[in-house]
Amino acid sequence: MAMPGLKDPNFSQTVNCICEHSSMGAFGLVVNRLHPFLTAKAIFDEFNLRYREPLGSIPVFWGGPVHEREVFILHGPPLQWEGSVRVSETLSMSNTLDVLHAIAMEQGPIAFLIALGCAGWGPGQLEAEIKANAWMTGPVNETILFETPVEKRWEEAMKGIGIDPSLLADTAGHA
Question: Contact, 30 vs 145, CB < 8 A?
Answer without folding.
Answer: no
